[in-house]
Design brief:
Elements (H helix, E strand, L loop, with lengths): L2 H16 L6 H20 L8 H9 L4 H6 L2 H9 L5 H30 L6 H14 L1 H7 L2 H18 L3 H12 L7 H8 L7 H16 L2 H17 L3 H4 L2 H7 L10 H15 L5 H19 L7 H8 L2 H12 L9 H22 L1
Length: 363
C-alpha cells in the first residue's frame, strides 16, 4: 500500500470518527475496537517507499547482531526479537497497536480527571474515537508510518504526563524512563513532568503568552538564537581544546531549514494555538494541558531553524489531541451532525500537512 492509498484511507477513517456521534454508545465501543485493529493493520501493510521503512527492515533482519545490540535502544531490540518469527509486518503492527493502547489508556485517565471539575456531555467512547482520529491526523501518521522508535517514546511520555496529572509521581517517572528506552529524545518528558504540575490561572495570561510567541516568531528569533549560539561556540572552541571535539556536532545539529519561520507546520500550529487560546476553558486539567501545549509552541518558534528540532517539541505539541477533544465538548454545539465540525476541520488540515511532508521526502 503506497502513501497515497494509505493517506486516502486515513482521511476517510478520520472523517467517520469525527462524526461518530451518529452511533449509540454500544456501537461506538465496537467501532473503537475495530478502528484500533484497522489502523494497526493499515500501517503494517505500508510499502517500503515510506521514509525509514527500509532502514527499519534492515535493522529487523539483524536484530540478533552485536552491532544492533550496541547501537539500538533496549526496548526496541526486545520487541524486534519477540516479533522476529512473525516477520517484519508483525513488528509494524505491534508498534502501532501498542501506541494506540497507551494513548487510549492515557486519554481515559485525563478524561476521568477532566470530568471531576466540569460537567461534560461528550461520552467516553466518543472521546476515545475523537482522540484516535486527532492522533492519526498528524502524530499517529508520522510516528507510526515513519519514525517508529520515537513514536513509542512519545506515547510513553504522554502516559507519564497523565499519571503526573493524577498525582502518581512514581508511575509518571517510570513511563518517561521507559520512553527513553525506546528513544533518548524522551528526555523531553522530564521537562513535561515539571511543566504539567503548574498551570496558567487566567485566560489573559495565555493571550499575553501567545502574543509573546508571535513576536518571537515575527522576529525570526529561532534563527537568530542558533546563529548566535553557533558563532559563540565556534569562537570558544578556538581557545578551549575540550570544545573542539564537538565542533562537528554543532555544524550538524545546527543545520538550518530553508523554510524556517515560514514552515507550513509552524504556521498551522500557531493558528490552532490562537483558536485554543481564545476559547480556553476554566477547567484545571484543561489549563494544565494547555500550559504544556503552549510550552511546545514556544519551543517550536525558538527551534524552528533546526531540521530535527521537531523530534523534541512534538512531545509537547501532541497535547493538542486531548485539547481538541475537550474543546469539542466546550463548544456545546447541539447539532448532531455539526458539533464535531471544528475537530474535523483541524484534523483534515493536519492530515494534509503530514501527507505533504511524507510525499516531499519520497519525491
Amino acid at each position: 500500500m503506497d502513501v497515497l492509498e494509505l493517506s486516502t484511507v486515513i482521511i476517510i477513517i478520520n472523517t467517520i470518527c469525527c462524526f461518530s456521534n451518529i452511533f449509540n454508545r454500544k456501537s461506538r465501543a465496537v467501532l473503537l475496537r475495530f478502528y484500533v485493529i484497522l489502523y494497526a493493520v493499515l500501517f503494517s501493510m505500508r510499502s517500503f517507499e515510506f521514509p525509514d521503512t527500509s532502514e527499519y527492515y534492515n535493522i529487523f533482519l539483524n536484530a540478533w547482531s552485536e552491532k544492533i545490540r550496541m547501537n539500538a535502544e533496549p526496548l526496541n531490540i526486545i520487541i524486534m526479537r519477540i516479533c522476529y518469527l512473525g516477520g517484519f509486518r508483525t513488528l509494524l503492527f505491534l508498534y502501532t497497536f501498542m501506541n494506540e493502547c497507551v494513548l487510549l489508556k492515557a486519554s481515559s485517565m485525563i478524561y476521568r480527571l477532566y470530568c471531576k471539575g466540569t460537567q461534560i456531555w461528550i461520552k467516553k467512547e466518543e472521546m476515545q474515537l475523537l482522540v484516535l482520529c486527532s492522533y492519526f491526523s498528524y502524530f499517529g501518521f508520522l510516528y507510526n508510518a515513519v519514525i517508529l522508535r520515537e513514536g513509542a517514546a512519545i506515547s510513553m511520555v504522554f502516559l507519564g504526563a497523565a499519571y503526573a496529572m493524577d498525582q502518581k509521581t512514581l508511575k509518571s517517572v517510570f513511563c518517561v524512563f521507559a520512553g527513553m528506552l525506546f528513544h533518548l529524545s524522551a528526555f523531553a518528558g522530564i521537562l513535561i513532568l515539571f511543566v504539567i504540575r503548574f498551570h496558567v490561572s487566567h485566560k489573559r495570561t495565555f493571550k499575553i503568552w501567545y502574543f509573546a510567541v508571535i513576536m518571537l516568531w515575527a522576529c525570526n528569533a529561532g534563527t537568530i538564537l542558533f546563529e548566535s549560539f553557533r558563532s559563540l561556540f565556534l569562537y570558544l572552541a578556538r581557545y578551549i581544546p575540550f570544545l573542539s571535539r564537538y565542533t562537528y556536532y554543532v555544524y550538524y545539529v545546527s543545520t538550518t531549514r530553508s523554510d524556517g519561520m515560514y514552515s507550513k507546520k509552524d504556521i498551522l500550529f500557531l493558528l490552532i494555538a490562537a483558536y485554543l487560546v481564545m476559547h480556553s476553558t476554566r477547567n484545571l486539567y484543561y489549563k494544565k494541558l494547555m500550559t504544556v501545549f503552549m510550552t511546545g509552541i514556544m519551543c517550536m518558534v525558538l527551534l524552528n531553524s533546526l531540521y530535527l528540532a521537531y523530534r523534541f517539541y512534538d512531545y509537547f505539541l501532541i497535547f493538542i489531541v486531548p485539547l481538541l477533544v475537550f474543546h469539542t465538548d466546550y463548544t456545546k454545539i447541539k447539532i448532531a451532525s455539526g458539533r464535531n465540525t471544528i475537530a474535523l476541520g483541524v484534523n483534515m488540515l493536519l492530515s494534509v500537512a503530514v501527507i505533504r511532508y511524507i510525499l516531499s521526502v519520497i519525491v
